[in-house]
Specification:
Number of domains: 3
Number of helices: 16
CATH class of the largest domain: Alpha Beta
Distance between the termini: 39 Å
Number of strands: 17
Strand order of the largest sheet: 9-10-11-12-13-17
Helix content: 25-40%
CATH topology of the largest domain: TIM Barrel
CATH architecture of the largest domain: Alpha-Beta Barrel
Structural class: alpha/beta
Oligomer: single chain
CATH superfamily of the largest domain: Metal-dependent hydrolases
Length: about 475
């Protein structure tokens, strides 16, 4: 059986040059029924036609908010040609979808799949397709390529199994122009960042992503970001942000959400609080107020949204979770140099202890990727502390000064997750479930990167939400 695949690299929503989005050659696909997608032709055609494929007897959810209805779906030349009771028509291949749901492909608006999709081994994107995902937006959280044209070439080298849309990432733009310096840009540097954003949007960018929680994005004042968002807005772009504070690290959760609203208001573009959450015991229970502020901004005419994954863990880096931003300025070598001063080391450790409390303690931090020693993957920070007979803070410093350590942090309240989901302040529930690392094209050879069965994962989440 050969199903249509949808693997365009999608151009920006409004390109002043008038150029059409670049499209790429299809890859063969033998994957999931759920990935039938996007273009829906008129519902009725003359009977007696022969199509390439007819999917029969499924419950069709067509993406229009219409309740599911039983129908056949005809596919011809890679596109959906008809939907209805096609009893007089025939398919060269016919699929009986009785008991199954047929829907447009899912869109993951926050995906870290870009690097994987650029490799020969993972360009097919089968872990995404197996979950019904046919479109991914890459370069989120303020991190990713700044040369989108070069990234396009890398993505098209081995073909693509899914559609790809690109963000231009504020943190990467800032790093390219200013390095990891913790200061405001000069006028010349701000102009340089504006040029990078405008070039990226001309090359097909869909908007600006930021990660103001992370270095170097955290060093930027809101005015810097508003200025860059205006550049994206000229091309019809959007603004998506991993907000400055999902807990009480710095400005606090509520102020961080207000910052995203203000970017949308002043830059005149849709703004999205991505993977919305109340992270850690100090802010549990604040989700109701977050949702109220988003809805109040909408009532005022600001186009602001949120997206969410419906589980109580988040993925980030150990450095980002625990090490204060001022100590990260200049990069890892600068951090190591600061640790060489006993006075500065004491200050760093003191702040790290507070950050560990925000995360719920060492038992709530699990290693998902350890670049220099994969044997630690799946273990927790408290395991490392016990193994080395040191404090969790000393264990964390020993790890982060050796290389990258990715973590899963179990630090959200189920009540907050339910509140955000059920209050409908959300534009997306991330369908990309995995054991450890949401949003990535998973490497099957790494235990922490094996994808779960998406249908089973969703059944479990739905049962939990309905309980």
């Amino acid at each position: 059986m050969r199903l249509p695949t949808f693997n365009n690299l999608m151009g920006s929503p409004k390109d002043p040059s008038g150029r059409q989005p670049i499209r790429f050659r299809n890859r063969p696909g033998r994957l999931l029924l759920l990935t039938l997608a996007f273009m829906i032709a008129p519902l009725s055609l003359q009977g007696g036609r022969i199509y390439d494929i007819i999917v029969r007897n499924g419950a069709v959810l067509d993406g229009t908010d219409r309740p599911a209805y039983k129908a056949d779906v005809a596919i011809h030349r890679g596109k959906i040609a008809a939907i209805g009771h096609l009893t007089d028509d025939r398919g060269r291949e016919e699929i009986d979808a009785a008991g199954l749901t047929v829907s447009p492909g899912f869109i993951d608006t926050h995906s870290h799949a870009g690097p994987g999709l650029a490799t020969e081994e993972l360009s097919h994107g089968r872990p995404l397709l197996a979950q019904g995902i046919t479109t991914v937006f890459i370069n989120p959280d303020g991190g990713g390529a700044t040369n989108l044209a070069a990234q396009k070439r890398a993505l098209r080298k081995h073909g693509l199994g899914v559609n790809v849309a690109q963000f231009i990432s504020h943190g990467s733009v800032r790093r390219e122009v200013m390095g990891l310096e913790a200061r405001n840009p000069t006028k010349s540097e701000q102009k340089g960042m504006l040029r990078v954003v405008a070039r990226a949007m001309r090359n097909g960018g869909w908007g600006l992503s930021s990660g103001t929680f992370y270095a170097p994005g955290s060093y930027a004042e809101p005015e810097e970001i508003i200025d860059l968002a205006r550049a994206a807005s000229k091309f019809g772009g959007v603004y998506q942000s991993h907000i400055r504070d999902e807990s009480n690290y710095s400005v606090g959760l509520l102020a961080a959400v207000e910052e995203v609203i203000e970017v949308g208001r002043r830059a005149h573009l849709p703004a999205v609080v991505t993977h919305i959450k109340a992270l850690g015991p100090p802010v549990w229970g604040q989700s109701e107020e977050v949702i109220a502020r988003i809805n109040r901004a909408r009532d005022e005419g600001v186009e602001v949204y949120a997206d969410q994954y419906p589980y109580t863990a988040s993925a980030t880096g150990l450095t980002a979770a625990l090490v204060p931003r001022w100590a990260q300025a200049g990069g890892k070598d600068s951090l190591i140099a600061r640790l060489g001063s006993s006075e500065t080391e004491t200050k760093i450790k003191s702040e790290m202890k507070k950050n560990l409390v925000r995360r719920g303690g060492a038992k709530r931090i699990q290693f998902r990727r350890v670049s220099f020693d994969p044997s630690w993957e799946g273990k927790r920070l408290d395991d490392a502390a016990k193994a080395w007979d040191v404090s969790p803070i000393d264990a964390a410093l020993r790890l982060v000064t050796q290389g990258y350590v990715g973590i899963v942090s179990f630090n959200m309240s189920g009540e907050d997750v339910r509140a955000s989901t059920l209050k409908r302040a959300i534009t997306r529930i991330d369908p990309t479930f995995s054991e450890a690392d949401h949003g990535f094209v998973h490497d099957p050879d790494r235990p922490a990167h094996r994808a779960c069965d998406a249908a089973d994962a969703w059944r479990r989440v739905k049962a939990w939400l309905d309980a």
